[in-house]
Design goal:
Helix 2 packs across helix 7, helix 2 crosses helix 11 and helix 7 runs antiparallel to helix 8. The radius of gyration is 18 Å and the shape is globular. The protein has 255 residues and is mainly α. It has one domain. Helix content is 72%, strand content 0%.
Length: 255
Amino acid sequence: MKPVALFVEKDSIVRKIWSKADTVLFIFAGSAAEFALNKAVDWLYFTGKLPADPIGRLFSTVTYARSIIFSDLDTALKSIDKITSIHSAVEDSRNAKIPDWAYRDVLYMLIHYSVASFELLERKLTAEEKEEVFTVFYKVGERMHLKALPACYTDWETDYDKHQEKDLIKSKFTTDLFKQYKKHLGSFRYYLLIETQKLLVPEQVHKLLAFSNFSMMSIIVPIYKLCRIFKLDAFLKMLVLPEKYKKQIKELDIV
């Protein structure tokens, strides 16, 4: 019997990165900061879905990406096509086109925070592993017919820096979105979100959001890693996560 073709091979570092709930949550946390600064964030304000439920909206974006990573090739391609179709419908409603760079920005965020989150919680990635991360999201972008995608991880690093300079701005949407994060998370969880973001975001995001250089998470993360050894991490995750997302987040753990 012919084996089923996979979108991401079973032994890929990308599957390892996205198979643990805590790493996925850190990817989500970092993306939430950069997403709020993106000049194209007004597109999600147009639908009204983002300000109404910013945590759910961003969480669904991350889980959608994760479902593609763990799907067979045909299912993954259909999921990517569905994303394209949904965005086309929004474009029709607004009678305008989402800029190509805005799609690239989301892919670039997933690449950066996949690497940054895994390295913070686990270990440094090799050059080959970073290339693997890039290749997976490059395939997503290629399927979405995005133009001007970089050819390799090194080229992506250069282009990501350029995107940071061109596509990010602290706007009224940024301010409102962070207010919504705090409203939906509560003060304590919001504090943890900000402290986590400080350790993950690139320099330009750090500067635009006026983050301080010290993060309490630099003390908490080593303690958390120790808790994982003694299997106390599940309790801690449940303690800091909003009740309505606990079931979904628990299901993110594959290993």
